[in-house]
Amino acid sequence: MSNFQLALAVFIGTHVVIAAPGVRRGLIAGLSEGVFLLMYSAMSIGLFAWLIVAAMGADTTPLWAPAPWAYWVAVVLMPLAAVLLGASLAAPNPLSIAFVAGAFDPKRPGAVAITRHPILWGLALWGLSHVPPNGDTVMLTLFGGLGFFASIGMVIVEKKKRQALGEERWQSLAASTSFLPFGAIVSGRARWPGDARTLAGAVFGAVVSAFLLLGGHIWLFNRDPLSLF
């Protein structure tokens, strides 16, 4: 097994195991929800960094030559993914996975007004948008695998959270949000989030996206996303 295959297996395996209701409840009971989320976030970041480094050093086989439109997919979707992830950094979310614990007010849902799953949507868009411009076996496995994992994760997490909360509580908390991004806002069930925490996170995500587009991506990963424009 290569370092990349091991990193991918550990990344996915640990997240699947920790997401199991019994394991998660046991860890929260022993650590408290705040400490659990802090440790979970640190673990995820560390494993993700290992996975990226392993992918960059792995042997690969070309599959297709990316066309100019393929780069547009990533350039258009990545800022949205970055803003979703940034806006959800400090947002408590009883309806999906979250980086922080805290009280959740369905009348002021913050980033959750955009979608019930801002973190998972951000990861899914990040992964799937990178598939077209990266035509080799390792990158297809990395980005396609993680994008698919995040997409399936939304369905699984939603089912588990709904069962845990009960239908009445779920409906109350989910009234001002939607599964698809911007669905509740377009339908009028929610307003654009205007709280300082969400706006600061969204700005942070936008700044990170601009940094990557304007030289950060080639500095970190030796690939320029604007190279064909």
Summed up, what is this model?
Helix content is 66%, strand content 0%. By secondary structure, the chain is mainly α.
Topology as a string of helices (H) and strands (E): HHHHHHHHH
Number of strands: 0
Kindly name the structural category: mainly alpha
Number of helices: 9
Helix content: 55-70%
- Measured by DSSP, the beta-strand proportion falls in under 5%
- Could you name the ranges where pLDDT drops below 50 across 5 or more consecutive residues? none
- From the N-terminal CA to the C-terminal CA, the straight-line distance is 38 Å
What is the overall shape?
A: globular
Major sheet size, sense and barrel closure:
none
Please compute the radius of gyration using only Cα atoms: 18 Å
Overall structural domain count: 2
User: What's the average pLDDT?
Assistant: 90
Mind sketching the topology for me?
Elements: H1 3-19, H2 21-31, H3 33-56, H4 68-87, H5 118-129, H6 137-165, H7 167-174, H8 183-187, H9 196-221
Helix pairs in contact: 1-3, 1-6, 2-3, 4-5, 4-9, 5-6, 6-7
List keywords for this structure.
mainly alpha; 2 domains; globular
Notes on the structure:
With 229 residues, the chain is an all-alpha fold. The protein has two domains: 1-59; 63-221, no CATH class. Helices cover 66% and strands 0% of the residues. It contains nine helices and no strands. It has helices spanning 3-19, 21-31, 33-56, 68-87, 118-129, 137-165, 167-174, 183-187, 196-221. The protein is globular and about 50 Å long. The mean pLDDT is 90.
